[in-house]
Amino acid sequence: MDSNISWREQLRIIVFQSDTKPGRRFDKILLVLILCSLLVAIIDSIEAVHRNYAAPLAWVEWTFTFIFAVEYLVRLYCSPKPLKYAFSFYGLIDLLAIVPGILAIYYSDAQYLLIVRVVRMLRIFRVLKLSPYLKQANYLLAALRGSKQKIIVFLATVSTLVTVFGTLMYVVEGPEHGFTSIPKGIYWAIVTLTTVGFGDIVPRTPIGQILSSLVMITGYSIIAVPTGIFTAELANAMRGDQLQHDCPVCAKNAHEPNAAFCSRCGNALFPKLGAIAGPANAEPDIST
Length: 288
Known about the structure:
Membrane topology: Multi-pass membrane protein
CATH architecture of the largest domain: Up-down Bundle
CATH topology of the largest domain: Four Helix Bundle (Hemerythrin (Met), subunit A)
GO molecular function: voltage-gated potassium channel activity
Strand order of the largest sheet: 1-2
Protein name: Ion transporter
Helix content: 55-70%
Number of helices: 13
Keywords: Ion channel, Ion transport, Membrane, Potassium, Potassium channel, Potassium transport, Transmembrane, Transmembrane helix, Transport, Voltage-gated channel
Largest sheet: 2 strands, antiparallel
Number of strands: 2
Oligomer: single chain
Subcellular location: Membrane
Shape: flat
Number of domains: 3
């Protein structure tokens, strides 16, 4: 690195800039450490392994926690705006990767929350230059935002249905058949409407069985609604990147980005291109 750059600036380049060779090397090492720490947490959850190797695994985990804590402090130190980093998405995730290890001192089961470190693997998109995948993720986010109001209406409708069905089952079946309260009936309605069907509570009376059949049919009829809403919004989000220009021949509106010719009929989309290229369907002159 340039000797004229300060030590803090050199650290910032290594820690935050994955488009440099040292930065890529640092991020790759970090990803390996994250994977190893996840593997340790997963293995430690196996009872036989935990019983025989609890102490060594604890030391290994403390080592990872110490490394990640130092990394977090280094990021705070070399960041131009430490508070902005601390409250950013990655900053909060980096902090959450440390907290469970500290909480494990007071609450042993908190160590299994270390699995939150898997979220830090999102850096792999930046390290391996997988920006096209991030663009596809943006399509999904745009579709979720676009379908938010429709999904809220759908959830409100479903909530109303399960409340009504749950109350009816409580009235029809009663405590003697397991429907001890309206919330219990609502729980049954949710399980049945979503076609999960745990089977821990079942209707016994003929009226209850007829009602449960109605709930099942209703569940099948509405379960595809949010999928359709989201799919439509996803198509709209992806269509936003297309070239919006009417073809002068077939009037097709949506085309690939930077398209010069219509994908349906092959004619030029713009008059100047048509004048230069000539008609798409013109036959070559072979008289000469």
